[in-house]
Amino acid sequence: TVPRDADVSILVSLGPPSPTFVMPYLVGLNAESAKDRLQAYGIQFTTPQVAPTPGVQPDTVLGQNPGPGMPLHRTDLVQLTVSQP
Fold first, then answer.
1. 53 and 31 in contact (C-beta within 8 Å)?
2. 13 in a structural domain
3. Does residue 1 lie in a domain region?
4. CA distance 65 to 78
5. The whole model's pTM is what?
6. What is the mean pLDDT of residues 9-22?
7. Contacts with 63 (C-beta within 8 Å, 6 or more apart), sequence order
8. 3-class DSSP state for residue 72?
9. Total structural domains in the chain?
10. CB 31 within 8 Å of CB 64
């Protein structure tokens, strides 16, 4: 029992830490394959940016942010840049 006027400290947990993933290398994949790979881990992504790229198959991933090998949490957003004819 705690005396009525005693100070009490309370520690509140925010829950378990968010799992961390390693950002996969997506450059060269088509956009759908890259999105499927991200969705398999429950990772969110933004609408891809497009870059005019003559001679490259349309919807090919040209860049990604964060870069490959970077730590990634499920709450992070991934930005892809894809080719457009």
1. no
2. no
3. no
4. 6
5. 0.76
6. 84
7. 27, 51, 80, 81
8. strand
9. 1
10. no
Six token digits for residue 51: 């870059």
Mean pLDDT, residues 2-8 taken together? 91
Which token pair is 18? 């968010």
Cα-only R_g, the chain = 21
Least confident segment among 8-22, 33-47, 66-80: 8-22
Q: Write the CATH number for 39.
A: 3.30.10.20
For 10-30, what is the mean pLDDT? 89
Instruction: Report the amino acid identity of residue 45.
Output: F
Percent of the chain with pLDDT over 90: 72
Q: How confident is the model at residue 66 (pLDDT cuts 50, 70, 90)?
A: very high
72, part of any domain: yes
> Do the Cβ atoms of 13 and 48 come closer than 8 Å?
no
42 found inside a domain: yes
